[in-house]
Write a structure and sequence with these properties.
19 strands, 28 helices, alpha+beta, 14% strand
């Protein structure tokens, strides 16, 4: 990437930095405030950057003393596209703006929501915790903006304004501006953060620059300022997507000791491989991380310039990458790529429906690639491949190949080494140098992954000629070639499956939780449609903001949810969850732990997610319970089926737990479908199964020690067969036998009367009986004696 293009990107990232100064009470326009701040306090003197800051509004540009090819014109039009400026009544902060307005969540206008919630003034860091939106409108006062300014000022001292520090600047802006509104216009929704706006503006002006260069257009003033309306209709951009197939099979098809650490290592390896692939493609196309709109779950969206050069690079990248996948993983992993050309107007849904068409075209392209993965020569290569006498089956992943130490293939052997460090390592280096004694993991395009600490990374950067970049995990660092901080759901107690089962209350079992967001694809494409406002908020800005907020929940906030438990079955607070995140990112998660912690955690996650998204999005989940030695590849598939059972419930938003093989009928429109017993909406599970049934059973049996488990299991059997008339009489008889004797305490008698009345009422309802089955089984597991079969 050329130095002048880097300056263009930096200008985009800094163009609105003056809003932080302006909102402290500075009387000047924010463009002037930002320019003076960068010159006087950040000691910046690059003219290209400063012009983008000083002259990025039409009023200033009109008579600005700059050349016709000034970057200010690029930043001007990128700013307009990013903010959908044609929909604002005024694009100046001086008139019609509320200076202390807090940031609103994009969830305020998602999926038909009309709530008016606000974020609190805070920074993005682990110490601040979850920033749940509330109805309280807290003024973002001058003191807050002074703190933001001082933070940015101090952070800027540690970087240089060149290509090697672009990602450091992104990290600085994300940490400080995630909860700062971009616009405080009274007539508009203030739901785009200043960070998201700056990042998108930098992506847009970089794309426009390359598009104009390929078309040999040098007079930016004429094209972008004088004829901007015409330019908005040109297909300047490509929205690109990359999707990895085979993730589930790669992660969970293992059969070895230390399986939990290996699961985590395999998951993180793929996650980091995806980030590496993104960075390689961005480097080849001469774009920055500002162009990355979303990454998670083996999927990403990137904004590229619509140039023949970029299209050629993508084709060559796709071929080389999948050839590497074939060589290293056979057909287990494949990367599909799709793209759609689009104009500035399309990114603002003009004409109506054109924004959704972009995503539909990408989806069709990805689907076609997945259905026709390989070309003829690759299929011939696969069919001709055969192993010699020296090939055997890897004991971990079961693939056939040349085995290394401990009967493991090269990849699994190196993953075993990574699994020892991955949960506790903050830095990861990417290098072209392979030091075999370190057993680095291979990455596409001839590179290798090394876990590092701060000292070893510093030494590598100084002595390794093959060093390419470094990643940090869950912490903000600034420095040369720090590619990005990776938000990673990495909470763990460090326990094995066996130890987690031993930590469980009652029966010694592990629990496995799988969950993901319902209807996310539909939400991404059409979640901001609203006839009442003529779909004015269907824009790339809100899609990017929504995607980042969801990534933050699943990759960053999830750690805090496990570190600070809330819900417990007993009502007694716990210090930390006995659990380990195997994977959490994109829109889904896979967590293993002591079974009771996993059940309680599921409640915490659902309630936190509901608060985080204002109820505009829902989760569906499945929870399975297993002995610690049960094959993880089998349990992973079974819990996936439980999760799918939740999604089969009309309306989704459900959890499946302790199914007993029975089903019941439910209606979905005119169609009748079978729903597994054990599948409930979250509200039914929390209120009816736990709060009503489980609480009643627990209250009675906890104070009636003479009523053993036999009574409980007999009740369960009769409830399962309640449709047989004779069993109703047996059920009533059994309840009568459970009545305390005449010498019992009054409290015990009172509890029995309440319990028996409830149980008699519930037996007459199929819905109540389903809930009772789950509640009784849960209580039996929770009170099981250690060692009891």
């Amino acid at each position: 990437m050329t130095e002048e293009k880097v300056q263009l990107i930096l200008g985009g990232l800094l163009h609105d930095i003056g809003k932080v100064i302006y909102r402290q009470g500075d009387g000047r326009r924010h463009s002037q405030s930002g320019h003076d701040f960068l010159v006087e306090e950040a000691m910046l003197n690059e003219k290209n950057i400063l012009d983008s800051v000083r002259f990025h509004h039409g009023k200033e540009l009109k008579n600005a003393p700059i050349e016709d090819n000034s970057f200010a014109y690029l930043t001007y039009i990128a700013d307009n596209i990013a903010s959908a400026a044609d929909r604002r009544e005024n694009n100046s902060e001086d008139i019609g703006f509320e200076m202390t307005l807090p940031l609103e969540p994009v969830f305020n206008i998602l999926n038909g929501n009309h709530q008016r919630y606000y974020y609190h003034s805070m920074f993005l860091d682990k110490e601040s915790g979850l920033n749940h939106p509330t109805e309280k409108k807290e003024a973002f006062d001058e003191f807050f903006y002074k703190c933001v300014k001082e933070n940015i000022k101090e952070n800027l001292k540690g970087i240089l304004f060149n290509n090697e520090y672009v990602n450091s600047l992104l990290a600085i802006l994300e940490a400080n501006l995630t909860y700062v509104p971009s616009s405080t216009a009274k007539a508009e929704a203030a739901d785009i953060s200043l960070y998201d706006h700056l990042k998108l503006t930098a992506a847009l002006n970089s794309c426009i620059y390359d598009y104009l260069r390929e078309n040999e257009i040098k007079n930016y003033r004429e094209i972008l300022f004088c004829n901007a309306v015409k330019f908005y209709d040109q297909n300047t951009f490509i929205l690109f997507s990359m999707d990895v197939s085979g993730i589930q099979q790669f992660i969970y098809t293992i059969h070895s000791e230390g399986a939990l650490k290996m699961l985590r290592a395999r998951s993180f390896y793929l996650e980091l491989m995806m980030e590496h692939m993104i960075d390689i493609l961005l480097t080849k196309t001469e774009q920055s991380r500002a162009n990355l709109l979303y990454a998670g779950g083996g999927h990403c969206y990137i904004l590229f310039p619509n140039t023949e050069k970029v299209k050629l690079i993508i084709r060559e990248f796709e071929t080389e990458l999948n050839q590497w996948m074939l060589h290293n993983f056979g057909v287990d992993l494949y990367v599909a790529m799709g793209m759609s050309e689009c104009s500035s107007n399309n990114l603002k849904n003009n004409p109506k429906g054109s924004y959704q068409d972009i995503f539909r075209m990408i989806a069709r392209s990805l689907s076609q690639k997945k259905s026709r993965r390989y070309q003829a020569e690759q299929i011939i290569q696969l069919n001709a491949a055969c192993g010699g006498d020296h090939t055997r089956e890897c004991r971990v992943c079961k693939r056939i190949g040349v085995l290394k130490d401990q009967d493991e293939c090269s990849i699994c052997n190196r993953l075993s080494e990574l699994s020892k460090n991955i949960l506790y390592t903050d830095f990861f280096a990417i290098s072209k140098t392979e030091r075999s004694e370190s057993k680095p993991l291979p990455l596409p395009f001839g590179m290798y992954l090394y876990p590092e600490n701060q000292d070893s990374l510093r030494k590598r950067m100084q002595s390794d000629e093959g060093f390419v970049r470094a990643y940090t995990k869950n912490q903000f660092f600034t420095g040369k070639n720090i590619a990005t901080k990776l938000w990673v759901g990495n909470y763990t107690t460090g326990d094995t499956f066996k130890e987690l089962a031993m930590h469980a209350t009652g029966i010694e079992r592990i629990g496995i939780l799988r969950a993901d967001i319902d209807n996310l694809g539909k939400t991404i494409v059409s979640g901001f449609e609203n006839a009442e406002n003529q779909d004015r908020y269907v824009t790339i800005s809100r899609t990017a903001t929504l995607s980042r907020q969801l990534s933050l929940f699943f990759k960053f906030h999830i750690n805090m949810i496990l570190e600070h438990p809330k819900f417990t079955l007993t009502g007694e607070m716990k210090q930390k969850r006995k659990a380990t995140i195997v994977y959490s990112g994109g829109d889904d998660l896979f967590i293993v732990g002591a079974w009771d912690d996993i059940l309680e955690l599921a409640i915490d996650i659902e309630e936190e997610f509901k608060a985080y998204t204002e109820g505009t999005l829902t989760l569906s989940a499945g929870i399975g319970m297993y002995q610690s030695g049960f094959p993880i590849h089998v349990s992973a598939l079974e819990v996936a089926e439980l999760e799918e059972a939740s999604k089969n419930l009309p309306g989704k938003n459900a959890i499946t737990f302790l199914p007993d093989g029975e089903t019941h009928e439910a209606s979905e429109g005119k169609e009748k479908i079978q729903i597994a017993d054990g599948t409930y909406t979250w509200e039914e599970f929390k209120n009816c199964v736990l709060k009503d049934k489980y609480a009643a059973i627990s209250e009675f049996f906890d104070c009636s020690e003479d009523k053993g488990k036999n009574f409980l299991y007999h009740l369960l059997e009769l409830i399962r067969n309640q449709k047989e008339k004779i069993n109703l009489a047996r059920y009533i008889y059994l309840l009568a036998r459970m009545e305390p004797g005449a010498k019992a305490l009054e409290n015990e008698k009172r509890i029995y009367q309440k319990f028996s009345k409830q149980m008699y009422h519930w037996i007459h309802s199929e819905k109540d009986c389903r809930e009772l089955k789950t509640a009784i089984t849960l209580y039996a597991y929770f009170t099981r004696e250690k060692g009891e079969v």
